[in-house]
Amino acid sequence: MVIGAGVSGIYQIKRLIDLGFDAEVLEADDDLGGTWYRNRYPGCRFDSESYTYGYSFSQELLDEWHWKERFSAQPENLRYLNYVADKFELRQHMRFSAKVKQLAWDEAAGLWQISLADGDRYTARFVVASLGPLSAPTMPSYEGMDDFAGPSFHTFHWPKEPVELAGKRVGVIGTGATGIQVIAAIAPEVAELKVFQRRPNWSTPLNNGPISAEEMAEIRARYPEIFANCAASGGGFEHVPLWGFWDKTPDERRAIWDELYTQSGFAILAANFAEIFLEPEANREISDYIADRIRQRVDDPAIAEKLIPTDHGFGLQRLPLETNYFEVYNQPNVELVDVTETPIQRMTASGIETSDHSYDLDLIVYATGFDAITGAYDRMDIRGTNGVTLGERWGDGPTTYLGVLTNGFPNLLMVAGPQSVSGSTNFPRAIEKGVDWVTGLLEHARANGHERLEAEPDAEADWQKQVIKAHERLLLRDSKGWFTGYNSNVEGRQRGHREGKVRYQAYFGGAPRYAATIDDVAANDYRGIALS
Ligand code: NAP
């Protein structure tokens, strides 16, 4: 049983059906698409180059699909996933509106007992959890939230029906990658926009543009090279990092950054000097450079300073990419409300009350993020051997073997799970690798008559060491982002990484090292996995 019909689940079911497994997908939503089905807010789009985001597994698909924009938007992305599912006739293997409430391991039978919210039950020998790392949205809790008279919703729950924005007074809470996209997209349309910002994020231009038929033909011809480049790079992109920060003069570095700032996507991060992620001095210099860029784009110097992060360096939290985001604050209809200075006190029928002002609003958008990476697992009642829940097991942070298995939860395989590279690299590239590996393991089990597989504790402990080592090298180890498990709206995660219990949520050793490690495990009879 595959749980989730998002980018991972779609490819996972294709692989299993092709190999003749008796497999099915359970999806809580009423249609497929996962993150691209849910996140319908204006401005929602890839920040991976479209042609590095799409699946690579089918030459026909690569030949047929024309990405229209360098960074394609949500409606097109959802169309793409539907196209894939229809082309390969995958829908018939998916059951929608099938919300899994509980997974309980039945040791005597060697099966997972699966209970759905609607009371239906299934059993499965193996469960592949394709739950997505950013699928458990989190909301703040303020007094009076239910009293607000207008519509209010999390960006993940942006309605399917068109939302009237013209002439409206809109409040957006949150300035992560989502907030930054939605703010820039709606600012030209709404009558008034109040942005409630607690901590600013670094953000740099996406530099999006159309892809013509000729360009798409060139991309098609280059696909093998594109995917090889992605597989060879730490972040799963085509960008290649530089080394030798200190070999250049400050002027030479600035010239390189001037060029990177005009390039598209994550070039400014992934084609930058690797030292910026490792050495405080190098990070300070690039942070100062990006801060100056923000100052150049925002007319009011006081507002510019508020938009510049001071609690973390550039690239040490997940970098949001933007289109005209900073210019939005030059518009007369947009106001930045610094809720660190004047905290939100409550919601009222008419809007948001901070410590010094009442803002009258017609619509409130919560761009307040996710219980990232482990949240979707925690929200499901997953009981392994001895009835321990996965949430309990991971209370102080996840531990896994290769991000795929965890001891005490036999036959539960995670695609893009905690401590894999899915959270830290170009997502679909990591997914395809993960799905292929999980599929290989299932084929191996089938071929050898194994009905139970479980991560060995020693192997898991060893992987934990590798995850910690890769993480601790990087300056991001001290940041308060979802990479490191921070979330102000989840009990026990409100503090920074160092101030609280450290959660090692993702593997930061890079995609090639991760791929080499899991391939080596497979080549050695799945070392570290007890097969019986
Ligand atoms: P996020 O990065 O966690 O940001 C959440 C924002 O909400 C933060 O600014 C946070 O402020 C703020 N917030 C939360 N509770 C608040 C409160 N009570 N009062 C004021 N502010 C509050 O979440 P996200 O923006 O949804 O992005 C999550 C991830 O999704 C991204 O990092 C990215 O990986 C993915 N994403 C990808 C794309 C894309 O591919 N293009 C687009 C959007 C999102 P604090 O920082 O102060 O807590």
Rounded to an integer, what's the Rg over CA atoms? 23 Å
Q: Based on DSSP secondary structure assignment, what is the total number of beta strands?
A: 21
Q: Which architecture of the largest domain per CATH?
A: 3-Layer(bba) Sandwich
Query: How many strands, which pairing sense, and closed or not: the largest β-sheet?
Result: 5 strands, parallel
Helix content: 25-40%
The number of helical elements comes to 16
Task: Provide structural commentary.
The chain is α/β, with parallel strands linked by helices and 532 residues long. The protein is built from 16 helices and 21 strands. A five-stranded parallel beta sheet has the order 3-2-1-7-19, with helices on one face. It has a five-stranded parallel beta sheet with strand order 8-17-9-10-13, covered by helices on one side. A hairpin with a 4-residue loop joins β4 and β5. It starts with a strand and ends with a strand. The model has no long low-confidence stretch (mean pLDDT 96). The site of NADP nicotinamide-adenine-dinucleotide phosphate has 25 residues, from α6.
